[in-house]
Design a protein that fits this description.
By secondary structure, this protein is an alpha/beta fold. The chain folds into two domains: 284 residues, Aminopeptidase (3-Layer(aba) Sandwich); 129 residues, Roll (Aminopeptidase i, Domain 2), CATH 2.30.250.10. The chain is built from nine helices and 19 strands. The strands form two sheets. Strands 1, 2, 3, 4, 11, 12, 13, 14, 15, 16, 17, 18 and 19 form a 13-stranded mixed β-sheet that branches. Strands 8-7-10-5-6-9 form a six-stranded antiparallel β-sheet, sandwiched between helices. The chain starts with a helix and ends with a helix.
Length: 434
Amino acid sequence: MMEQYREVRQCALDLMEQIRKSTSPFTAIEYVRDELKENGFEELALHEEWKLQYGGKYVVTAFDRTLFGFTIGEKMTERQNIRIVSSHNDFPCFKIKMSPEITAFGCRKLNVEPYGGMIRSTWMDRPLSISGKVALLSEDPFHPETVTVDFGRPVVTIPSLAIHMNRSVNEGQTLDPQKDMLPLADLAGEEVDPQFFIKALAHEIGREPEEILDYELFLYQCEEGCFVGFEETMISCPRLDNITSVRACVQGLIRGRRSEGINLIALFDNEEVGSNTKQGAASNLMPFLLERIYAAFGFSRTKMLADLADGFFLSLDVAHAVHPNCPEKADIINRPVMGGGVTLKIAASQSYANDCEAVAILHGLCEKAKVPYQRFLNHSSQRGGSTLGSIASAGITMRTMDAGIAILGMHSARELMGAADQWVMEGLVEELFS
């Protein structure tokens, strides 16, 4: 038991470290790509011809923000067993607009807009940093130079209005993102500098302001994760949604032991805004990737489609734990709890991908891996959320199941989970890929 406790705790610490470095879709993908390469995965490029080998391990990124990792069995069988686990690497936050500099009342502010559905109040009065990608001037207009940037320290904050000026603040508050949630970046005094942000960004990346053509930059909550509880049974951390699932995908792929078939992880961007982008789960990226794998070995698209019909696709995203203070919001029977293990996500609306065979498969895998599991269904009067499972599986025609780790505070600047659940989820994915 002591050995398992150490494994569970180390797994939680490793998760918090990955979250600390996954501050935007770009840095999240960089972290995973580097980890896979360190574990023997060969990097491929989408625009180059692929020469794949039996027994090979490969990683390929798309637009610096979506990633596929896959292993090929020692041989291609008559029916190539395909197993896919997917997740998303983006999170609700604020995105910095172009020409964002505002100076007012002795302060420098940034013009931002919401990305995804956040709990806005949780972003107030916190130390925030900036992370993302910058496009720079180059000789070839079709191939601008790009650099990833992470300020890595608190540089902005969004201050609340004092209760003395808003006596009804505790009775419910509407926060206008264009008025109430513009972050402060510095004190300005009497000085008005219309380029204070672009100058700070240029300094951070070691370039000149005039070299910067565009950027995709996000604010992130930079307080680190920590254990919570008298016995440290919980984790409080930003971006649990959905780096918990990203890490489970990667660790399962690295540890997977299958000698036949294709094991594939797909980490998509833009789930929080609907997935309908060139790098999202609704794109053709995954079908095209599978076609290229089959073509590299001289197999037809017809064979690929037949194999897909016999494969299995697991979509991982966090689930809702029953809230101890608001149990009436949960289903009256199916009430997953933090620390309760893998949560199977089921919805009659198919906002979560499932059918009875897929549910049975997950039950069997959990039993074989000796990991606990539970079910989430929405309260019948609640619409609930959705994820990428149904979206992605509609394009590749595979039996698909949605699952995840049950958390509280979903889409808050900080979320809460059971400390042991990450170890359990990684064990499930390892079993699927073994």
